[in-house]
Amino acid sequence: MRVNVTVNGERRQADDVWEGESLLYVLRERLGLPGSKNACEQGECGSCTVYLDEVPVCACLVAAGQVRDREVRTVEGLADGDRLDPVQQSFVDAGAVQCGFCTPGLVVAAHDLLERVPEPADAEIREALAGNLCRCTGYEKILDAVKLAADRRAATR
Ligand code: FES
Ligand code: FES
């Protein structure tokens, strides 16, 4: 089947998509967007988190056919050209990236949190990111990164 979908503001088309294919597969293998990671393919780890119509979803659990004529925004789409989004930059600056496998999903989840709650308490950050697993960092640096991003976003308001 053919899937037309808007990805990061651009109209994109994927052909010969298999009925059972996931949005994650389409993004990575057909549309050349490897930012969203495939760690579990079962909706357990959050590494594949993308926005679908501005709501974060696990792209591995969304069938490609479900995204027809909808809007997807991936971690690549958060940056403004070469300029990283404050959330992306804060993950780098706070040392919240080790192997990096969890990072794209965490960045999208943290971005969504800060859009909804610009100055979240620690408990709100932990709750918002509870579906995103990281094997490397122990989560403290991730917490630091989200708080740094919140401060930076506040400074530009
Ligand atoms: S790869 Fe989608 S939740 Fe783990
Ligand atoms: S940095 Fe390695 S899984 Fe999070």
Structure explained in plain terms:
The protein is an alpha+beta fold and 157 residues long. It contains five helices and five strands; from the N terminus they run E-E-H-E-E-E-H-H-H-H. It has a five-stranded mixed sheet, with helices on both faces. Residues 97-102, 134-137 line the site of one FE2/S2 (inorganic) cluster. One FE2/S2 (inorganic) cluster binds at residues 97-102, 134-137. Keywords: 2Fe-2S, Iron, Iron-sulfur, Metal-binding, Oxidoreductase. Residues 1-78 form the 2Fe-2S ferredoxin-type domain. GO terms for molecular function: 2 iron, 2 sulfur cluster binding; metal ion binding; oxidoreductase activity. It comes from Amycolatopsis antarctica.
CATH architecture descriptor name of the largest domain: Roll
The structural class is: alpha+beta
The CATH superfamily title of the largest domain = Beta-grasp domain
The overall pLDDT, averaged over residues, is 96
Q: In whole angstroms, how far apart are the ends? A: 44 Å
Determine and state the CATH class of the largest domain: Alpha Beta
Keywords: 2Fe-2S, Iron, Iron-sulfur, Metal-binding, Oxidoreductase
Protein name: (2Fe-2S)-binding protein
InterPro entries: 2Fe-2S-bd, 2Fe-2S-bd_dom_sf, 2Fe-2S_ferredoxin-like_sf, 2Fe-2S_ferredoxin-type, 2Fe2S_fd_BS, Beta-grasp_dom_sf, Diverse_Oxidoreductases
Organism: Amycolatopsis antarctica
